[in-house]
Amino acid sequence: MNLPHSQPVADFSDYRDDFPALQQSVNGQPLVYLDSAASAQQPNAVIEAVASYQREDHANVHRGVHTLSHRATESYEGARDKLCNFINASSRAEIVLTSGTTESINLVAQSFCRPVLKPGDQILITWLEHHSNIVPWQLVCEQTGAELIVAPINDRGEVELDALYELMTERVKLLGIGHVSNALGSINPLRDIIGHAKQAGITVLVDGAQGVPHMSVDVQSLGCDFYAFSGHKMFGPTGTGILWGREQLLEAMPPYQGGGDMILEVSFEQTVFNELPYKFEAGTPNISGVIGLGAAVDYLSGIGMDSVLEHEKSLHAYMVTQLAAIEGIRLVGTAENQASVQSFLLNDIHPHDLGTILDHQGVAIRTGHHCAMPLMQRFGLPGTARASLGLYNDRDDIDRLTGALEKARQVFA
Ligand code: PLP
Fold it and tell me: For residues 213 and 41, is the Cβ–Cβ distance under 8 A?
């Protein structure tokens, strides 16, 4: 059988041709893009879906009776249906379209937590979290008198599960946990963690910004209550994101913002809110972006997320072996279950200097704290260099990375 998921790993290189940004040279060298955890490149299918809407169908959604508005609405709502299937949500009412993971988490903090939290309650997170899964909880804790507590991690960058489970007392009202660490690549054992949280009666939000682009996600079988992710990390446009939430929880939550589209009826005396998911979608949305995101979902579904994960795991293993062979390399983040991301340091070269030298050789990596300052503090580091993979990367890219690092090592010797 020639199903997409049975493709040999090497075939993945062919997907690179779908990404026009990867066909260019940077600083005189063919571009090697290893910064997909920050933002992934977009395939032609996404670019064309956005352009086609802008060329032919541009109009506002939901409110118009004319043909262009109908077409725009159909494509926009069609993308919601695709997202619903992609993560196996039980209903399209559960797919709230936002501007990204950050807005999705803030929405839960303000609409789910703020009305019910009181002094003495706790929100539980881990040391692995991105600032987007820290600061919204800090804000709501300040607003309500609740407390933010943090589960420790070990030196490999794995959550200490026993300690996490001990912190799951009846005081904890919500656990906010990343699916995959953007800085270290650690994949959390979500089923176990969510199982324990549910036994303790704790609502669980998963920050899936680094999960959905790299593996198959089934929100129903995961058993969490909210799952947040971003379009631009899954090969879609920036300014798009999703909050998936259980329908009965979303139903009970007050709106996040007020404005057009989230209402059924407005008078000066009172407003009747729209049904789900529109209750949470005030104002004109990012129509072109969401249509592009729908195309990204089609693209990923065509490849198959299980084969994306397999490809990236194999490539990550190769990257680790090749990096480890470089004299003076220190890998930061060595979790047993890790994919798509590797942080490292080279001798005492500042990560920003390393990033600049690599850029001169056409290799794009990210350097700094990766929006995870507490995590960097945990390792006693101001930052790291980070190479992150997308489905379009291959072993040649890794070889270019290690070659560029060897040069950097010699420059700073
Ligand atoms: N959470 C994680 C784990 C991330 O990696 C990111 C982005 O890097 C975010 C949240 C925030 O995503 P966005 O900026 O798209 O809202």
Answer: no
User: pLDDT digits over 100-121, tens only?
Assistant: 999 999 999 999 999 999 999 9
Q: How far is the CA of 181 from the centre of ligand 1 (A)?
A: 10
Judge if 395 and 326 occupy the same domain.
yes
CA distances 31 to 127, 128, 399, 407, Å, are 34, 30, 13, 17
Sign of CA dihedral 154, 156, 158, 162: negative
Cα 249–255–259 angle (5° rounding)? 155
In this structure, the answer to whether residues 149 and 189 fall within a common structural domain is: yes
Tell me the Cα Rg of the chain. 22
Q: Is the peptide bond before 4 cis (omega within 30 degrees of 0)?
A: no
Alpha carbon of 102 to ligand 1 centroid (Å): 6
- Which residues does 412 contact at the CB level (< 8 Å), separation at least 6? 346, 347, 349, 353
Task: Give domain status of residue 175, yes or no.
Answer: yes
Closest atom of ligand 1 relative to the 104 alpha carbon: 16
Pocket test for ligand 1, best of 104, 108, 130, 217 (most atoms within 8 A of CB): 130
Residue 127 forms beta bridges with which residues? none
The domain of 186 spans 48-302
**What pLDDT, in 10s, does the model give residues 19-71?**
999 999 999 999 999 999 999 999 999 999 999 999 999 999 998 899 999 99
Residues 274 and 332 in one domain: no
